[in-house]
Amino acid sequence: xxxxxxxxxxxxxxxxxxxxxxxxxxxGLKPGECPEAVNLDRSQLLVEIARLYVEAGAELITTNTxxxxxxxxxxxxxxxxTEEVNRRAVEAAREATAGRAYVSASVGPCGRLLKxxxxxxxxxxAAGFARQVRALAAAGADAICVETMTDLxxxxxxxxxxxxxxxxxxxxxxxxFDPTPRGYxxxxxxxxxxxxxxxxxxxxxxxxxxxxxxxxxxxxxxxxLSGTTSLPLVIQSNAGLPVNRGGEIxxxxxxxxxxxxxxxxxxxxxxxxxxxxxxxPEHIRALHAMVDAxxxxx
Amino acid sequence: xQILNQIADRLEQGEDAQVDELTRQAVGQxxxxxxxxxxxLLAGMEVVGRKFRDHEIFLPDVLLAAKAMYAxxxxxxxxxxxxxxxxxxxxxxxxxxxxxxxxxxxxxxIMLEGAGFEVVDLGSDVPASRFVDAAVERGAPVIGMSALLxxxxxxxxxxxxxxxxxxxxxxxxxxxxxxxxxADFARDIGADAYGFDAANAVERVxxxxxxx
Lengths: 298, 212
Known about the structure:
The complex is a heterodimer. The longest helix of chain A has 17 residues, at 122-138. Chain A contains twelve helices and twelve strands. Chain A is an alpha/beta fold. In chain A, 43% of the residues lie in helices and 17% in strands. Chain B has a five-stranded parallel beta sheet, sandwiched between helices. Chain B is an alpha/beta fold. Chain A binds chain B through residues 21, 25, 30-33, 75, 111, 113, 116-118, 150, 180-182, 185-189, 241-244, 247, 249, and chain B through 54-55, 57-61, 63-64, 67, 97-100, 103, 125, 149-155, 179-180, 182, 184-185, 188.
């Protein structure tokens, strides 16, 4: 398998995976339980889920390390096991992918607000990300994926930590934007343009957006991104915002709907298309088919 | 009064040191604590809340304004107690059991305090019984619940059921909010109100208290 960045730079479009939380929940993760605790005592579940996504056509598999920063793990009393939590998730993903897909190691927000808005020093956050990235890289991750960020300072701390600790690995960096009458902003007030510039300056190799408010909004965000940065783009969309149907919480966007709308991303230099909350293997299968069918894309 | 406008203006800008100093001065000049609160601090927070609702400003601006509000409130609290200035009402808030997300809940707490309510913040990961116990013990007529996860939303229903089981439906009102929560969901589980954002939650709490 060629290196991820080489393929992206040749203009290939790769398909990412879908949500992990719902898959873990379906296999017994309880509400309120630390999702990363699964890595320690039920890592076979991770292999099972990753295989579902590989079989559906995912070419990148996200590791179950979104909350794997020691600052976040501390909320569950697991900070001391940071290395083990991160290593085991990469090992499980590698076992499942067996070279058929890249292992994209997730690094999510640390859960604390930086000074002066919160009480946390940037150095503490940076050290936490560095520790997480060291463990992910040592275990054999193919890329570091900084995701769901809303504070550009925190995001750049994570990107810089990734570049410093694992200079050989490509870094993907995505932020989460909401629509406002004045355009898209993160809840911390970061515009799409500011995000793209700041993440690129910190050293990200691919930039983009994840989570969000559904695929149509994501296409709009991708349009802004493609007009403001020359870096390859990443879009991992929610299947819409959750709605309550007869007491059951569901994400409204079907695989067909998402894939049809996501077709537009191919015109916008989007190099990695995947899912986020509410997407499952069927969404990935539909996205894969859409990318595959696009003329001259592979 | 000039100094009250200044307090409101500095608070809007998130200048906590200046709000601290101006509030101290106003108290020294003998301005009634209730006036400093309502026409200074809360007037400023009202503007901050409106601008946040309208996406003119973002979370960092609100957090800085809140810091400034608390800096001013520290001077006023003992005076308000001594003057027996009534609060707008008491509200118990928390993120429901299983949910460690608290930014949204904190924001609602800030906005409620900024609107003159007394807030009992139970933090995150709050079990159903603690919401109800705290509301009864503290004499709060309103319980506000937050959830960010679709998997924890169901705890909100547990709280509402518990209120019914304990026969407290007449004295306790509930309001819910959070990214996965909707007005429909609130209706389905029998919550009394739904706040679609922090500023809206404050409006709904005002309605609940007025109707109580």
